[in-house]
Each structure stands twice: as C-alpha cells, then as structure tokens.
C-alpha cells in the first residue's frame, strides 16, 4: 500500500483553509492509502508561544482531525514531539543542507521580516523539520495546500542529496548499508481548495496568523459568528456572481468555498448563482457553511468529552509511527557512520 503523511500546526484555530486545502483531502485518502497524520507541535514553537496554549491547541487539533472524519481505525494520528526521531533527523538533515537552500524559502523570508532581529534559528531550519516529518515515513504522497509547495520541493531535493551522498553502491563499499535511504515523495495539491483566500482581502490567503479573526472562518465558529463574518466579508460592485474574473478575487474565492462545502460541481454552482446579487448569495453561503460544519462540531464535542479516548489514539498512533520512523533513522545513522549502540 502506498503511504501518505501530513500535518497541521497547532497554532491558533484550525480554519477553513486548513480544512479545504488539507484535512478534507486526508479523509478521502485514508480508505486507499496507509495514512499517518500528525499534529506538528515542534513547528509551533518557531515563533514565540504560550506553553499553556500549545498543550491545549495540540489536543484540540488532534480532536479536530477526528471530528473532520479522520478515522483512527484507518489512519494513525499522533503528536510530532512524541516521536523523537523527528527532532533527531532534523539535525542530520541540517548538516547536509546548504544554508542557501533555506534562505530561499518564501515563508521564511516573510516570517523573518515580520519578527525582526530576534528571529529564532528554528524559523530558518523549519523546512528541515518538515522534511524529517515526511522522509522518516518513506511515504509516497503528501497532501497539502499550495503554500507548502516550496517546502515539498525542498524535501525532495534534500532526499536526493542524502541519497546521493550516503546511499548507493559507492557508499556500500565503504561499509554503509547501500541502496536508497529516503523515498522521494510527491506533493498532492488539490485542484480546488488549495488556496483559500481571506474574507477581508481576496488577494491574500486565509491564515491563522492574520490579526483579524474576521478574515477567516474557524472550524469551531458558531452559527452566529459564521453569519456575521459572511455578512461583513469583502465584496465588490459588479452584478451577478462569477468564477475566475481577475477583477473579482473575492467572488471567485467565496464561490469556491461554496462549491466545496456544498459538494456541488463548479458548473452547477456557476449556473445556480449567476443571476444572484451579493445579498442573495451571502445567506446561501452562510447556510452551506453552517450545514457542513455542524456535524464536525458535534463530533468534536463528543471527542473532547472523552479525553481518555483521544489519549489512547495518540498513544497508539505514536507507537506505530515510531516503529517506521526509528527504522529510517537507524538506517541513515548507519549510512552516516555513527557507531551503533549495543
Ligand atoms: P499549516 O499548519 O500552516 O497548514 C496546514 C495545512 O493547511 C494548508 N493551508 C491552506 N490550504 C488552503 N488555503 C489556505 N488558506 C491554507 N492555509 C493553510 C497548508 O498548505 C497545510 O497543508 N509546515 C506545515 C505543516 C507541516 C507539514 C509537515 C505538512 C509540518 N510538517 C509534513 C505536511 C507534511 C504548515 O505550517 O502547515
């Protein structure tokens, strides 16, 4: 069976972008692939954080995975920091990766600009922690949103580099295990939903770190919050509703969201809304969102009401993940020439 891994950072609330760009697609993959989904808590400390909030957000994220339909009887769900190989492999990869590769990362440049002088080293090496998350599991596919494309390309480059330097026959002659150390994975970016935009600006992506909560729909927003946010979201003064008009980014974005939460095709949506005005479309969208999110919120309530259930799933998930991750780690350690522990 081909393998799939992915994760979301437990910083702030999980929003519609994370769901439509990633989590919703995980659910579709778990029936066909061997899937592992983690909560990337080590990534969440690359910017200043509140320890108490991190622990809560970690549990909340895991519960939301399940609430969104990730099924623990099919997929392994675990917390990144519970599998120590993630942090350990990151060190090994950081010694093989040129700094110039990391300096090119768009997310690093953006975040570093915002954090100024005190930017932590971890913000620079962040993509190597992500590469470790992926390469430890010898996976085939990584379902993510568009904003992670560059990190996936870096992961592939790092995997190739390690395979070239430490894998292969040449190295075998010098005592290494030989063969390929890492499988080189592909990004799986959905045709629709890979880039959900802000409610207040159709040209910037919906994000956890945007200061205004009005800019995003969080999966746990109440009906009132959803209706209020949709009522106030940015619109334009065109008549009718249409996809893909470059002068109407907000319109394209909201129709795309409507398409995904209603389960209709793009053509069906285009036909349904073409003669509507914003005043008619907004309640339709708000209702579709509420209808889609209500069962997720109900299930979330059930999961958090039973902390022992979630603890058990995370324990089992970490135990399973650890077996796969440790085997990869041991292999690269041998290849790099570390003395095996007896
Ligand atoms: P994060 O936590 O920022 O986002 C989690 C997932 O949500 C997607 N996403 C979006 N998709 C569509 N529209 C948006 N506006 C939007 N915002 C976010 C992201 O593309 C991502 O798929 N570094 C990663 C987490 C990570 C990871 C990994 C992912 C760490 N290790 C290994 C896959 C495999 C991140 O910060 O995602």
From TrEMBL:
GO cellular component: chloroplast; mitochondrion
Keyword Protein biosynthesis: yes
Keyword tags: Aminoacyl-tRNA synthetase, ATP-binding, Ligase, Nucleotide-binding, Protein biosynthesis
MF term (GO), any: tryptophan-tRNA ligase activity
Main location: mitochondrion
EC number: 6.1.1.2
Family: Belongs to the class-I aminoacyl-tRNA synthetase family.
The name this protein goes by in its record: tryptophan--tRNA ligase
Subcellular location: Mitochondrion
Catalytic activity line of the entry: tRNA(Trp) + L-tryptophan + ATP = L-tryptophyl-tRNA(Trp) + AMP + diphosphate + H(+)
Biological processes annotated in GO: post-embryonic development; reproductive structure development; tryptophanyl-tRNA aminoacylation
Whole sequence portion shown: 84 to 425 of 427
């Amino acid at each position: 069976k081909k393998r799939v891994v992915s994760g979301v950072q437990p910083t702030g609330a999980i929003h519609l972008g994370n769901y439509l760009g990633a989590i919703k697609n995980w659910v579709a993959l778990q029936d066909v692939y061997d899937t592992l989904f983690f909560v990337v808590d080590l990534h969440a400390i690359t910017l200043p954080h509140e320890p108490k909030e991190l622990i809560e957000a970690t549990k909340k994220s895991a519960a939301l995975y399940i609430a969104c339909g990730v099924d623990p009887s099919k997929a392994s769900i675990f917390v990144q920091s519970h599998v120590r190989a993630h942090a350990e492999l990151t060190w090994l990869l950081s010694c093989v990766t040129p700094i110039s590769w990391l300096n090119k990362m768009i997310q690093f440049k953006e975040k570093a600009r915002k954090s100024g002088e005190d930017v932590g080293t971890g913000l620079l090496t962040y993509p190597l922690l992500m590469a470790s998350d992926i390469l430890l599991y010898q996976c085939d596919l990584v379902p993510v949103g568009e904003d992670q494309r560059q990190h996936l390309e870096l992961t592939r480059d790092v995997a190739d580099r390690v395979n070239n330097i430490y894998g292969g026959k040449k190295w075998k002659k010098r005592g290494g295990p030989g063969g390929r150390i890492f499988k080189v994975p592909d990004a799986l970016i959905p045709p629709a939903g890979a880039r959900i935009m802000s409610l207040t600006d159709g040209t910037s992506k919906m994000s956890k770190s945007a200061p205004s909560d009005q800019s995003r729909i969080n999966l746990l927003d109440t009906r009132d919050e959803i209706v209020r946010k949709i009522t106030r979201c940015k619109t334009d003064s065109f008549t009718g509703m249409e996809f893909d008009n470059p002068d109407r980014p907000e319109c394209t974005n909201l129709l795309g969201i409507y398409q995904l939460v209603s389960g209709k095709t793009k053509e069906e949506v285009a036909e349904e809304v073409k003669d509507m005005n914003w005043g008619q479309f907004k309640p339709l969208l708000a209702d579709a969102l509420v209808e889609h999110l209500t069962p997720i919120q109900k299930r979330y309530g059930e999961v958090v009401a039973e902390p022992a259930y979630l603890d058990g799933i995370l324990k089992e998930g970490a135990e399973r993940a650890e077996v796969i991750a440790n085997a990869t780690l041991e292999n690269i350690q041998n290849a790099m020439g570390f003395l095996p522990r007896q």
